[in-house]
Structures are given as C-alpha cells and as structure tokens.
Specification:
Length: 133
Amino acid sequence: LLADYGEMLPGAYVPDLSAAGLTLVHAESRPRNDNLLLVGYVGSRGCKVSLLVAPAGSGLGEALADHVEGLRLAYTWRSASLRYVILAEGMDGARFRLIAETVRRTSRQHRPADQQTRVALKTSRAESRPCLA
C-alpha cells in the first residue's frame, strides 16, 4: 500500500516490515472520530500485526511498555506527540519484541531500519515458530 501516512495523521511513521516477513495490507485513518491511524501487516506463516497511532495522552513514556495476556502481546510507547500501540497474537515473544523495538526506533527516527536490524529481523523470523493465529 502506498500512502502518505503523514497526511493521514501528521507526524506518524509507518515502517516497512518486509525484513520480518510481514507485508503491509491495510491502512485506515479516522481523523474525524478519534484521530487514529490503523495499519495491518500479515505474514506467510499465520502472523498478523496491528499498529495503531494516535495523539499521545499524558503518562505514556518513550520506552516500550509491554502488555501480555496469554497469547496476546502488545507494546506501547510515545514518540513526540504521538502514541503507538503494536499488537500481535500467537507470535513468538522474542520475535515480537524485536519487531516492536524496531518499530519504536523507526517511529522516533522517521527512517527505515538499518541493515543490521533488517538482518536481525530476517534471522528472527527464520528461527521462530509459525504464529498460532
């Protein structure tokens, strides 16, 4: 999907996660209701990842905060004036943490992941089990 995410939600950064075996398949903006950007990725081994971006409220830090409930995994963080939430279900925890750290870093830098990170994402995918979605 080609889109200008900055126009959908000013300041938002949506990364390319193809190195992690994830393809961007959905992008939706809801500026009138809650000023929310929703992005969906899918993988070839049953993985689904959702990324939500919205204006940041108070109390949310810049560091990754994890929220785990069984097979449901989520991380939240703030980057400038935006809050990010990344979600997955049934994904290998270490792999999802690396993806979340990558998205956090790229959301702060507004640049694609570096070569070392892309290699780590590919390796993580190759060494992890398929998702249990």
